[in-house]
Specification:
Blueprint (H helix, E strand, L loop, with lengths): L10 H8 L11 H4 L11 H7 L20 H5 L6 H14 L5 H13 L7 H9 L16 H10 L2 H6 L12
This protein binds iron/sulfur cluster (2 copies).
One iron/sulfur cluster binds next to helix 4 and helix 5.
């Protein structure tokens, strides 16, 4: 029997819809051989594409969170599969289920507090100057008064609430 999510929706059906493009995969492996993240992490994008839309277990697979969204694989796929877009849709389903890696939750929290997923530091300020940029980017770093507006936007779309949501385990299966 298919697992159902809290809203009574059919989880596997949602995953199937999100993964529609992946069913064209011929398992050639070009995506994996093009994947820079896979050289440094456990990510095997070919295998993820293989199970996308076929099992709810993909939500507890931490490889889902190892993709840097560089789009190398998507550009090279001979079947023109929207690999990254499929992954992002599955991640969204996962987050709505309260399953996310703790590191990603922290990055989201940073966005909520600072208006940036990766706040600037002194080393990056120096690098910016070295390559001829202004010390601070045209964001809330430079226009601090804009931070309240960013926070309002984040609140208005329920992002904070979504990020706080926890299923009881993180994407590595650890208790939260
Ligand atoms: S490159 Fe495309 S067709 Fe080949 S394994 Fe990857 S997703 Fe499948
Ligand atoms: S988009 Fe993700 S899966 Fe594709 S090559 Fe880049 S890191 Fe790998």
């Amino acid at each position: 029997m298919e697992e159902k999510d809290a809203d009574g929706n059919r989880l596997l059906e949602n995953l199937r819809d999100a993964s529609a493009g992946a069913f064209k995969c011929i398992q050639c492996g070009i995506c994996s051989s093009s994947c820079p993240s896979g050289r440094h992490t456990n990510l095997n994008i070919r295998k993820l594409v293989k199970i996308a839309g076929r099992t709810t277990e993909i939500l507890s697979n931490e490889e889902l969170w190892m993709c840097t969204t560089c789009y190398n694989c998507q550009e090279r796929c001979p079947r023109n599969i929207d690999i990254v877009d499929v992954l992002l849709k599955i991640r969204a389903i996962s987050v709505h289920k309260g399953i996310i890696l703790p590191e990603h939750r922290e990055v989201c929290q940073m966005l909520i507090e600072k208006g940036h997923a990766v706040p600037i530091n002194d080393a990056n300020k120096e690098k910016r100057i070295e390559i001829g940029l202004e010390e601070l980017p045209e964001t809330v770093h430079k226009y601090e008064e804009g931070l309240e507006e960013v926070k309002k936007l984040i609140n208005s779309c329920g992002f904070e609430e979504l990020i706080q949501k926890k299923e009881g385990t993180d994407a590595r299966g650890a208790k939260t």
